[in-house]
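Methods — Computational structure assignment.
A single polypeptide chain was analysed. Its primary sequence is given first, followed by the predicted tertiary structure written as structure tokens.
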Amino acid sequence: MIDRHQNDRHHVGPVLQAGPIAAAVIEAIRSLNADVDVVDRGSYLRVLCRDRCVVSRAAIEERLHRAFVLPGELEQIMPSFKGFLHITDDLVSWDRTQKAR
């Protein structure tokens, strides 16, 4: 786990409170994005992707082996994020620009 992109304005993503749900969210993010960096700060994990980071409810549920409610359950473990947040019942994205793709 490294922080080479932490201050790079091209990298975006969530900050998650460490725990089993965060681990599942990170696994889901890794499955849907290329070149994912995770910075371990002990009690929290900073996830960074270049330009855009996405995660789907289905990918999280697959790893948790249970239903996952967006946005509520994600908001409970995400005290912060970098980028512009776009969220629906099925998909979350953090984008470098305000316009969602």
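Note: The mean pLDDT is 92.
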